[in-house]
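Researcher: Let's continue the batch. This sequence belongs to ABC transporter permease subunit, and it's 335 residues. Same format as the previous ones, please.
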Amino acid sequence: MAAHPTAAPPARTAASGADRRPAPELAPGPGPDGVARITRPPSEPASNPSPKATAGNALAAEAVAEKSRSAVGALAVRVLRKALVPLVSAGLALGAWYLVSLVLLSPQRRFLLPPPHRVLTESLADPAKLEVMLRALAVTARIAVTGLALAAVIGVAVGVIMSQAKVVERVVYPYAVVLQAIPVLAVVPLIGLWFGYGPTARTIVCVLIAVHPIIAMTLFGIQSVDANLRELFALGRSNRLRRLVSLELPAALPSIMASLRTAAGLAVTGAVIGDMFFAKGQPGIGTLLDTYRARLQSEDLLAALVLAALFGVTVFALFTAAQRLTVGRWHASGR
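Model: Same format as before. Here are the structure tokens for ABC transporter permease subunit:
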């Protein structure tokens, strides 16, 4: 019997569902090196996005733009709300100023309170007068910053020492209260006799005015630490220094920052008072205030007052921002 040839397996005519790319084709003839070359079919061009995908992308972009516009609008509303009250207050103050100057005062007595536009045109807009005032304000600012720094160091140190020893608190705190109760003008002559009438005496006045709130608030903040946390540190057998650095001072930081914000304004007041009573050396803004008062230069007097007030507000705002940066994330006093 003749042997039947074995049937060849059926050729694959189609790829599986996972791979439907056409098989590579052999070139019709061998290459120069005698090896058959394999050619790949040309890639198919990218298909255009469907209308539904285009519409979806447009809707997503529009939603993102609308969200950005709403965020910007909400921020503008918050800024407007915060600025509205100060602007209205400033407008009412200017209106009251004009009312007193132009309505209540007769023209013969209007030099006592000239209207705001005269203060602006005859004093603040004069470059020569403004330069003199800014130089004097720089002197006052230097005295205020120096006095505030000394008051901060002394106040925090005294508050910490009193918090660690009840005997020291009973001895020192009454003198701090007496120092706050006595008007600084009453001790100004003694300061002049003991320390002269120059910048040193002005700085001492700043320290005397600004140090008491720092002492009181530092002591209050340390004494207000949670008793449970104190017991936790006691269980860990922490010594007094570690407890002070790791627990008490961080817990008292909101009180200390609040006291510094208060003391900053008091230091500016002390610097102006020191300028008025201790005129030896470079004149400060308080020296100019006293000079303008004696000469009845009302426009210059009010302009110098405005500059001193703006400086005080700026210092207060800087310490408010510092308080928010240091304790605003975890304490309500800095928000």
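Researcher: Any comment?
Model: The longest strand covers residues 25-30.
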